[in-house]
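Run: sequence + coenzyme A -> complex structure.
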Amino acid sequence: MGVSFLGWGAAVPDRVVTNADLTATLDTTDEWIFERTGIRERRVGGSAGSLGLLAAQRALADAGVDASTINYVVLATTTPDNLIPATAPTIAHQLGIHAPAMDVNAACAGFVYALRTGVGLAATGSSRILVIGAENLSRWTDWNDRTMAVLLGDGAGAAVIEATDGPGDVLSFDLGSDGSLAHLLRCEHGGTIWMDGKEVFRRAVRIMVDSAERAIARAGISIDDISLVIPHQANVRIIQAACQRLHLEMNRAVVVLDRYGNTSSASIPLAVDEARTSNRLHAGDYVLLTGFGAGMTWASSVIRWAT
Ligand code: COA
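>> structure
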């Protein structure tokens, strides 16, 4: 038994904040930000709830299914609208869904964690599941801290999955965590996001490559079979370094961080949505999703694109 993807959707706030905009208040330049990160602009605004709702509505429309047929909602977010209640039940209510709904926090690996949760739920009787990644990182950003403010953005992406007989579209997973690295990237209650960027960078490449290789091996394929890699969007140099070690040409990687920055749990579904709407995904393609984040956590999955 496995799952198939029925539809995808994404949403970003309307407000664009360019690197040039940030130079008005921060001691930084467009050149520094673009050369060190690959980011040109980011979207700012909304909330995990409002962006997640919009992405979910679009995924449901793409799937052509009525919200009332969803029997589980899993929302990956590190920036829920409130500590209590979770944001997923509010989104579910706004969609007219009365099924179980919960948040999952695995930082930037969150969407693949939520997908793994959804696949597990499908195997135990939940037939149609809404998996969302939504973030409002701007709320937890110190806009006077040039080391963080240039990196983060807001957004959401969602997928509708359905239990199916046979292996389905999700071929493998590799998930993990190492809490001894909790100090590298954190945000305390009432605080703002802080990161040891150099150390995260160094570890991120190795973690992502190792995890990707395990997921590819578990899918029973080789790296040459991967048509597209859809990585977490933290820094284009991390994506380049990971691709180089995996012996994947960069033209097989989807990069959207130039326009959205790092949107944590939302980055992978946002990138999937862009890849599908720009015809970079074709039936039968093997696609690698891979991410890492605070915790530290990591998660990779190989999926086979069906439509
Ligand atoms: N504009 C201009 N200069 C900046 C700056 C900015 N926005 N931010 C930092 N600097 C300065 C630093 O103060 C430092 O100056 P110094 O040499 O005088 O001390 C210099 O630029 C180099 O800083 P450094 O932190 O060494 O840069 P870097 O090349 O490591 O790039 C990051 C910084 C954050 C872009 C990079 O480390 C990174 O992407 N890390 C991982 C990010 C990540 O993956 N995060 C999310 C995990 S989910």
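>> summary
The chain has two domains: 2-164, 170-304. The first strand starts at residue 2 and ends at 11.
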